[in-house]
Amino acid sequence: MNASPIGVFDSGVGGLSLLFELRRLLPNEDFIYYGDRANAPYGAKTHEEILDISKGIFDELISRGCKAIVVACNTATAVAIEPLRAAYPDLPIIGIEPAVKPARVAGCRRVLVLATPVTVSESRFSALLRANSGEGCEFIGVPCHSLAYMIENDAPSDEIEEYMSSVFAPYREEGFDGIVLGCTHYPLAKREISRAAGESVKVFDGSVGTATHTKNTLERLSLNSLARKIGTVEFISSDGGDHLEQFYKKIAKI
Ligand code: DGL
Q1: What residue's CA is closest to ligand 1, atom 8?
Q2: Cα separation of 189 and 213, whole Å?
């Protein structure tokens, strides 16, 4: 049993969608949320840059006493989860991956997996899609160049919807019946994405699965807190602002 905080990191506000689920499942844990807004969006960085940045953030969170780290970023998971596990062998590290399995289990036949350009170009991503394709279910990786940036910078709802309509346009003719949100920013624009796709298209995201996996991992390692109090969140933003905290207050009310 261990009352130290759990570290959670992303390039900005995206990982707050996962933090929200983590706090729902682990209400008495303390969290440190690191949003790397000074370097956002990660989707426009190189593989090497993301790896270096992730290691720096891990060192910071470890120096603050974190007992486990949740990489609340699909891009950093796709690029860095294996080197990070090799570099910090004693630390439980949980990553997030696109929820392709739930889409297959739900019976979808043609599914667009939306993610940042970096995630889509990673071999871990293509291997995941390949492993789940077949038996009448096809997964197509779709890079969304501007979406995380728009969400991070509070773009108006109609602009996000219009952008998503342009992303979906090449896939309309053959059709699609599922969408996987393969970036933690995207659940924050679920309504706009759904409107642009068409309300009958099913939408999947990995935050509940990842939060459950985090809870199970802590319990298996006896690292869960037994504190009889509601846990706290400390927000750290690499740009020094308080945007993360304000944004979290907004989504926690939804
Ligand atoms: N939220 C991140 C992800 O899940 C990164 C988005 C970005 O910074 O480009 O991929």
Answers
A1: 41
A2: 24
Cβ contact 22:70 at 8 Å: yes
Structure confidence by residue, pLDDT tens digits, 133-174: 998 999 999 999 999 999 999 999 999 999 999 999 999 999
| CA-11 nearest atom, ligand 1 | 8
Instruction: Please give the angle made by the CA atoms of 94, 133 and 199, to the nearest 5 degrees.
Output: 85
132 lines ligand 1 (CB under 6 A): no
Closest CA to 5 of 188, 207, 236: 236
> How many angstroms from the chain centroid is the CA of residue 87?
22
Ligand 1 proximity of 187 Cβ (cutoff 6 Å) = no
- Pocket flag, ligand 1, residue 185 (CB < 6 Å): yes
In the numeric block, which tokens belong to residue 74? 């699909």
Under a CB-based contact definition with an 8 Å cutoff, are residues 99 and 205 in contact? yes
CA torsion through residues 88, 93, 98, 99, sign: positive
pTM of the model: 0.96
- Angstrom CA distances, 75 to 98, 118, 184, 201, 230, stand at 10, 6, 9, 24, 31
Asked if the structure places residue 234 within a domain, the reply is yes
CATH number of the domain within which 244 lies: 3.40.50.1860
Indicate the DSSP class of residue 161. Answer: H
Classify residue 1: in a domain, yes or no. Answer: no
Domain that holds residue 212: 6-96+207-253
Domain match, 145 and 78 both: no
Number of domains in the chain: 2
